[in-house]
Amino acid sequence: MAVLGAIRSALEAVYVRRLARKLEGAPRPKHVGIMLDGNRRWARGAGHDDPREGYRAGGARASDFLRWCTAAGIEHVTLWMLSDDNLHRPPAELGPLIEIIEETVQSICAASEPWEIEIIGALDLLPGESARVLKDAAAATAGRGGLKVDVAVGYGGRREIVDAVRAAFDTHTSAGGDPMELAENFEARHISEHLYSPAGHDTDFIIRTSGEQRLSGFLLWQSAYAEVHFVEVLWPAFRQIDLLRALRSYAARERRYGR
Q1: Residue 210 zone, left/alpha/beta (φ > 0; ψ -120 to 50; rest)
Q2: Domains of the chain and CATH, by start
């Protein structure tokens, strides 16, 4: 079995290099959003009674994915780790999941890593200590200048838009502006300027693992013209080959931006 595994790994490495060469010079997205789906199903399929084993395996995969994106020339990644709907799960399930997310974020924020991390989402809905741990870990990465990574925790696309509208009015009135004046002249840019992520540009490409074919509100505002790729692979089993195949699919598409 060990010999077969080594042969399989060697063949996969050859295929990865070949596919990466084919993608040289091809169009590629600047901003990739990925929905890390299928952790619990992976745990069951791997024979684990505890679904947390799936989340741990998925958390470990995050660092690999960021390295692959860096190698592929991606500039900005958004990892959706926990939705605002997930916050309604029973405490016995939610608590350990948040702990694993904390561990994952601390890992990708380690001093040895080059990425600049931002935590986005309704962090006020998280336990106070958890929000502090996530914010402190991300703050330590400021100015690193590598791949820009948004980690979405307690995130919901509709909630983000509502919060952006509120923030736009708060900013306007705090500067002494008339809220009625802003309401009369409100534009799309007022929302874009107050979204959770300060990165600034829209999402080019969204990947969802596990075979589910819906966006569930992920990056609802930013994804208006995003290309979408659904892959059957469960997130903990996601490989560099799967990313490169997704990028190959992106490169073959004609982006029309609604025209």
Answers
A1: left
A2: 26-251 (3.40.1180.10)
